[in-house]
Design goal:
Zincin-like, four-stranded mixed sheet, elongated, binds zinc ion
Length: 334
């Protein structure tokens, strides 16, 4: 089985485990129904729900985020680093849940609006600041970086400083981060090992394609809209169950949001795949179809995956789709 398919199956298993766990809690008679409607009390209760959920789903995460990348040799990850990442995620989730409980208690009619806006704001902070801090690398100052500068100038692409990335992650080959004049290009060292100069230019042109078509802004707006819709729908459904005790309401909201975020991911994946193909089209118009074609063939493995699972759960289209997209564009321009 390929990496993508194994990962997708683990993701689906994780979703059903979470739903099952929350349904079990909802049906449980052991959970106190009338916990005092107090911020600290509810926060403590929510913390324990999240902690149990974390512990129950942890074996699946070990499989999907530690074992699978090792098995497919995607990147070197020590168990300590994996654990650190998971614990940080858990901590961030617990902190993000606090404003949500606060809004639920203070503004019962508008908790969905304030909670989803808080969540979108934290996504924005993550995209603008934290991701930039997470990427580390040394500045590339050699013949290649000069050639890249010439290439960017020729195609009037907003050229900025080029860095060789130190911490490599699974999906990342080249990346354009930052805003305004602080934009930086990060190249993964595997690009320099595997690709020719022209192929590297094509990968860069793909990244500039994302920039030119404002994909990051579009993705952020889409995610904000979907989050708002999920929270609003949860609130609407919840209004049918209002007599429930406060603890059960929190579990019910978690359950609804788990289901909605699963659906949200599918919608955002469909858009993300569309954006990848658009960026490919831009790259082939800028630096020729053939250069991108050979770069893609070197970087991606032909995958023999399930059509539907691949369409719904992968954020980038597979090699076959990307090559087909190049061919179709070639025909259109002829
Ligand atoms: Zn891309």
């Amino acid at each position: 089985m390929t990496y993508q398919l194994s990962k997708t199956k683990a993701k689906i298993l994780l979703f059903f485990t979470e739903v099952f766990f929350l349904l079990l809690l909802l049906a449980s008679k052991k959970i106190p129904d009338n916990l005092s409607n107090d911020f600290y009390c509810l926060s403590a209760f929510t913390f324990f729900v999240l902690l149990f959920q974390f512990l129950i789903t942890f074996p699946i995460k070990i499989y999907s985020d530690f074992f699978l990348p090792q098995k497919f040799r995607l990147y070197e990850l020590t168990f300590f680093n994996f654990l650190l990442k998971e614990l940080t995620n858990f901590l961030v989730t617990t902190i993000l849940v606090l404003p949500f409980i606060f809004f639920l208690l203070k503004t019962p009619n508008f908790w969905w609006l304030f909670s989803s806006l808080t969540l979108s704001l934290s996504l924005l902070i993550n995209a603008l600041i934290l991701q930039n801090l997470a990427l580390k690398g040394s500045k590339l100052e050699n013949e290649l970086s000069q050639k890249i500068a010439v290439f960017c100038k020729k195609h009037s692409l907003p050229f900025q400083n080029i860095f060789l990335a130190e911490n490599q992650t699974e999906v990342f080959d080249a990346s354009l981060i930052g805003t305004g004049k602080n934009k930086k290009i990060f190249l993964n060292s595997n690009l320099l090992e595997k690709l020719s100069e022209q192929e590297i230019f094509s990968v860069l042109a793909h990244e500039f394609g994302h920039l030119k078509k404002n994909h990051n802004t579009k993705k952020f707006l889409l995610e904000t809209l979907l989050t708002l819709l999920s929270f609003a729908s949860a609130s609407l459904i919840l209004s049918l169950f209002l007599p429930l005790a406060s603890t059960k309401i929190i579990i019910l909201i978690f359950l609804l949001l788990t289901v909605f975020s699963f659906l949200m991911e599918i919608i955002s994946n469909l858009f993300s795949q569309k954006f990848e193909l658009e960026a490919d089209t831009f790259a082939s118009q800028t630096n020729g179809k053939q250069n991108l074609n050979s770069a893609l063939n070197k970087l991606l493995q032909p995958e023999n995956t399930n059509f539907w699972l691949d369409l719904l759960f992968s954020h980038s289209p597979n090699l076959e789709k990307r090559l087909k997209n190049l061919e179709t564009n070639q025909r259109k321009t002829l």
